[in-house]
Automatic annotation (TrEMBL):
PROSITE patterns in the record: RIBOSOMAL_S5 (PS00585), S5_DSRBD (PS50881)
Described purpose of this protein according to its UniProt entry: Located at the back of the 30S subunit body where it stabilizes the conformation of the head with respect to the body.
InterPro entries for this protein: Ribosomal_Su5_D2-typ_SF, Ribosomal_uS5, Ribosomal_uS5_bac-type, Ribosomal_uS5_C, Ribosomal_uS5_N, Ribosomal_uS5_N_CS, Ribsml_uS5_D2-typ_fold_subgr
One term of GO molecular function: rRNA binding
UniProt GO cellular component terms: cytoplasm; small ribosomal subunit
Protein name: Small ribosomal subunit protein uS5
Gene (UniProt): rpsE
Subunit structure: Part of the 30S ribosomal subunit. Contacts proteins S4 and S8.
Length: 172
């Protein structure tokens, strides 16, 4: 189940950088020790600027808020290193398939007013990237970490018409 935190529509400004973050999943793990169980928490967070830059962070801590903060910090750092995604208005320029591990995410451009038709994990990545109209389908593993990585992989494969023409050495 995807969990969102913050103000309206679940997004929150991260500091003063104009980045928004979505908490995709918080999970609890237990370590059995002599006195009982010791619990720790893992947080998966997607960070983006809603104009084409998107990344994710994974944080672990003994309590939920520090785990989320660690994940946001890691996501912001990796977002600076990623390249901007090629968008066409509020959707993607062409159909693309992203893969990671046993997860596969098929993304298809959609017309205005369609909205983001996606499951948990994929939806947060697309919203953080600023995509408003898209259809998606997931195949294989539904592990949230793999779905997030597969979605980002697919978005990184997007090319504009001009970019493809330049790479092939032809004129449009």
């Amino acid at each position: 189940m995807a969990r969102e935190r913050g103000g309206d529509r679940g997004d929150r400004d991260s500091r003063d950088q104009g980045m928004v973050d979505f908490v995709v999943r918080i999970s609890r793990s237990a370590c059995v020790v002599k006195g009982g169980r010791r619990f720790s928490f893992n947080a998966l967070v997607v960070v983006g600027d809603k104009t084409g830059k998107v990344s994710f962070g994974y944080g672990k801590a003994n309590e939920v808020p520090p785990a989320v903060e660690k994940a946001i910090k890691e996501g912001e750092q990796s977002a600076r290193r990623t390249k901007k995604i090629q968008l066409r208005g509020t959707t993607i320029p062409h159909r693309v398939i992203g893969r990671y591990g046993a997860s596969k995410v098929v993304m298809v451009p959609a017309g205005p007013g369609t909205g983001v038709k996606a499951g948990p994990g994929v939806r947060e990545v697309l919203q953080a990237a600023g995509i408003q109209n898209i259809l998606t389908k997931t195949h294989g593993s539904t592990n949230p970490i793999n779905l997030v990585k597969a979605t980002i992989d697919g978005l990184q494969k997007l090319r504009t018409r001009e970019e493809v023409a330049r790479l092939r050495g032809v004129a449009i």
